[in-house]
């Protein structure tokens, strides 16, 4: 599913298109380092009538080439190229960020779908048990061994469980549709291949994610923010270069002839030009301040992204660790609740217990089984969120007996 998502996801295709745009913009900035050469040509045909009926005609061919080169003495063009290069690198990191998010979202929705399937299975299994209990209460009431209240209690307990299943099926449908959208498909197109229930994936007992500083460096959103800051710093250099003169060299070559390849007149001009900003109402200096203020904003954004990344990693680590403890406790609860439900049912059939004990035991069993399934799914989702929080990829290892 992840591989198909990489091939068909629309957000990923959009990020790839942004990279192509940034690459072309960098090429435009690089082209400004070199001279420009333009050429024009013309053909003029004229005829005259001298009144005697003899027309005289002539054809004039002319060509003109002009070139101009702005010398990058104060680094304006080079700084513009640096900005374009940094922007391209930022777009590459944006693509990687989209890729990591895509992989995580596909995995999260897959686990969510399997969790819903498991919850539906638990509800249906409990439904069978509660139907048997309802039949027992009816038999005991008809034989005079039980009362009508127990029958009604068993019935509303049964219907309460049955009423939970439609909401679970809605959640399953939404998860499957979301996976289809992430894969660039229409809703409903992957239902057939995922309709067979499969277990919730199992997480390793121990994972190693490395040093926090390394985690921060490998997150694409942090690297993107750093490249955006570098691009804006280069734009400050461009604005400062506008304060200084611009030097350029230009040349012009003209040629004209009455034959296409014949000899004719030729002329050439070459010169240099200096453009000095003398008075502009302070707009150039204000533009420098504007670019510097924007740079400060990118710097604050960069620091904010780092802090948010550290918070996200810390929260997901804590959530993963604590959910493991909760899952272990719920496993014990389910085992004990199963024994209690069986014992209460047997005692009720023997007339040694009230039906309220059976009702409480079955409710507790359904609750704990439901919570255990959700905890198993949440544990896997926490690991996926941790993968996303550290920027994708870690070394997972099962816990060795000797460690």
Report the portion of residues in β strands. Answer: 5-15%
- Spatial sequence of strands, sheet with the most strands: 1-2-4-5
Number of helices: 9
Q: Look at the helices and sheets and give the structural class.
A: alpha+beta
Mean pLDDT: 84
Radius of gyration, in Å, reads 38 Å
Largest sheet: 4 strands, antiparallel
- The ordered string of helix (H) and strand (E) elements is HHEEHHHEHHEEHHE
Low-confidence stretches: 394-403
Shape type: elongated
Distance between the termini: 35 Å
Tell me the number of strands. Answer: 6
The proportion of residues forming helix, as a percent range, comes to 55-70%
Task: Outline the structure in words.
The chain contains nine helices and six strands, in the order H-H-E-E-H-H-H-E-H-H-E-E-H-H-E. The chain has helices at 2-8, 10-31, 76-142, 148-182, 191-194, 212-218, 220-241, 283-349, 355-389; strands spanning 36-49, 55-71, 206-208, 246-257, 265-275, 395-397. Strand 1 and strand 2 form a beta hairpin. Helix 2 (10-31) runs antiparallel to helix 3, helix 3 packs antiparallel against helix 4 (148-182) and helix 8 (283-349) runs antiparallel to helix 9. The protein is elongated and about 135 Å long. The two termini are 35 Å apart.
Quick synopsis:
Helix content is 66%, strand content 15%.
């Amino acid at each position: 599913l992840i591989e198909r998502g990489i091939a068909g996801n629309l957000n990923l295709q959009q990020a790839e298109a942004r990279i192509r745009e940034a690459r072309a913009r960098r090429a435009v900035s690089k082209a400004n380092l070199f001279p420009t050469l333009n050429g024009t040509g013309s053909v003029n045909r004229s005829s005259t009538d001298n009144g005697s009926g003899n027309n005289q005609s002539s054809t004039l061919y002319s060509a003109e080439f002009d070139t101009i080169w702005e010398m990058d003495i104060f680094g304006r063009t080079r700084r513009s190229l640096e900005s374009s290069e940094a922007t391209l690198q930022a777009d590459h990191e944006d693509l990687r960020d989209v890729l990591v998010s895509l992989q995580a979202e596909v995995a999260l929705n897959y686990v969510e779908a399997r969790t819903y399937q498991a919850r539906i299975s638990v509800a249906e299994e409990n439904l069978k048990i509660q139907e048997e209990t309802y039949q027992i209460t009816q038999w005991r009431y008809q034989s005079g061994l039980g009362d009508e209240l127990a029958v009604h209690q068993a019935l509303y307990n049964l219907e309460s469980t049955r009423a939970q299943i439609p909401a679970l099926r809605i959640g399953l449908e939404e998860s499957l549709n979301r996976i289809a959208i992430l894969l660039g498909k229409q809703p409903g197109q992957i239902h057939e291949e995922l309709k067979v229930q499969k277990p919730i994936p199992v997480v390793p007992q121990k994972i190693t994610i490395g040093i926090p500083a390394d985690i921060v460096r490998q997150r694409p959103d942090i690297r993107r923010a750093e490249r955006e800051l570098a691009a804006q710093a280069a734009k400050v250099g461009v604005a400062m270069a506008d304060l200084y003169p611009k030097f350029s060299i230009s040349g012009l070559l003209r040629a004209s002839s009455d034959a296409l390849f014949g000899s004719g007149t030729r002329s050439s001009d070459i010169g240099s030009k200096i453009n000095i900003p003398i008075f502009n109402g302070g707009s150039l200096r204000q533009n420098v301040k504007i670019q510097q203020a924007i740079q400060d904003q990118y710097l604050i954004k960069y620091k904010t992204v780092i802090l948010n990344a550290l918070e996200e990693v810390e929260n997901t680590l804590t959530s993963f660790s604590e959910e493991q403890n909760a899952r272990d406790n719920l496993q014990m609860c389910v085992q004990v609740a199963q024994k209690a439900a069986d014992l209460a049912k047997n005692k009720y059939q023997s007339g040694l217990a009230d039906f309220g004990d059976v009702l409480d035991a079955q409710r507790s069993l359904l609750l704990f089984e439901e919570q255990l399934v959700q905890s198993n799914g949440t544990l896997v989702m926490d690991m996926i969120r941790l993968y996303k929080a550290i920027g994708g990829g870690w070394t997972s290892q099962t816990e060795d007996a000797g460690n």
